[in-house]
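DM from R.C. (forwarded with permission)

"hey, sorry to bug you on a friday — could you get me a structure for this? deadline for the figure draft is monday and I only need the backbone to look sensible"
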Amino acid sequence: MEYSNSSNTEQPQTCLEITMEVHRVVPPPHQSTIHKLKTTLKETFFPDDPLRQFKGQPTGKKWILAAQYIFPILQWGPHYSLSLFKSDIVAGLTIASLAIPQGISYAKLANLPPIVGLYSSFVPPLVYAVLGSSRDLAVGPVSIASLILGSMLRQEVSPVSDPVLFLQLAFTTTFFAGLFQASLGFLRLGFIVDFLSKATLIGFMAGAAIIVSLQQLKSLLGITHFTTKMGLVPVLSSVFHNTKEWSWQTILMGFCFLVFLLVARHVEGIAVGRTFAALKNYKVDGNKEMMAIGLMNMVGSSTSCYITTGAFSRSAVNHNAGAKSAVSNIVMSITVMVTLLFLMPLFQYTPNVVLGAIIVSAVVGLIDIPAACQIWKIDKFDFIVMLCAFFGVIFISVQDGLAMAVGMSIFKILQQITRPKTVMLGNIPGTDIFRDLHHYKESMKIPGFLILSIEAPINFANSTYLNERILRWIEEYEAEDHKKQSNLQFVVLVMSAVSTIDTSGVSIFKELKKTVEKKGAELVLVNPLGEVMEKLQKSDEAGDFMRPDCLFLTVGEAVATLTATIKSQVSNHVV
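My reply, with the result:
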């Protein structure tokens, strides 16, 4: 078979002799509606197939596996050894030395009594050790959650004028946060958190880190009259309007201690990147972890604990210290308990400037400048989303900044869904390969063929746009071909990337077919996938929409076959 190519610039026509076997497009195997629904639900809520371990097992074994699934400690506990305990006790004591000052500091950040921060590093780790499946995760209070909790509650109740109510609201908030998180995990809805894109998180965390650090200027400068607002402008205004309250002794002490913490924090930074790359030796079920952390917060809220979760820096230290199991959390919990029982009076004399320096050193690592630069290189829109989250947090509020970033992320998703990409394909000379004309400059148009690739699922949200865009492609092609005095004969739609289609999508093909036929051309489909082909066949009651001569597996086969058909018709007409 042969067909001629012409580029979109003025180039001489060439002929390619291509011989190929044309493969028949076959419909997908029949599946019942129940089977389709079952498959869809399984892929939506159980993509990791957590129940596969129960298949083919006797009843007794299934009960054992179920107990181990709910309580992972029953899985690794019987195999626990003294050598593992030696590693875990070292790791537990190490993270306890980090958890105690951080717990006190983060409680202060949340406007809660310091002892609440220690309670939150005592009870939740015990619960997680029983329910959690990660060997490296070290749980406890974290800076961002403390900041959000404190700022949101302070809008409703003053921690100074009504500290009891403030504390009760903190525990109630913790309970419902845990309930919500556990429910998401139980209902297998953990994928909802995927709406927080990487760019959103980087911008939000950086902005929150700056807000947290600015709040510590009260302690680091020795200011007594400080604003209760969280924004950048009111904080800086408060700082420079109270310069008479600055204490050089406090500033010197805070600066020296902060430098010491930042320098010490730097063997850890190197170690994190080196060791966490090897954390793929075991698998962690995200939904199950959500249930464990949610239940941990629900239990914690009834034992005077506020919101806790897994902290990256603390988990990195836990791993670097040689943790082998969740026993390291138990060791940390026992260490904190001893501190609560016997050493708590000593912490009453901890200077606020020291606590402020601890908080700043902990959150400064949340500002990830290399990641921001990488986002700028890869995707400018993601960079804008990141900046919205960043500036929203520091200039408006933590909650509004996060809401803005999530809103822009969702807008980006909607934009991709409602405005799918379509590209015009051309033939790479000497081959039967067809690629984007704008991407591959050597690719050439085929006279009489408009070959378009639809690169997204088709649904009610984008069907109207696709119909209008394809018609515009046709008009542009006809305007260009009018100058060359050639006619459009075939509109070829490549459907390889169209994974799904709904009734609105099916209807545009019917409309498009009628429009194309009115122009004296024919609509041809290439490689429609199973579900798409099945729905198009069911809608083709007349039997003329999915004819074999309008349905091909590859663009090369379509062009070669249709070109040969045209030549055959011309030859017969001449005869």
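R.C.: lifesaver. The longest strand covers residues 422-427.
me: no worries. The beta strands are 2-5, 14-17, 139-140, 309-310, 422-427, 434-436, 449-454, 490-494, 522-526, 551-552.
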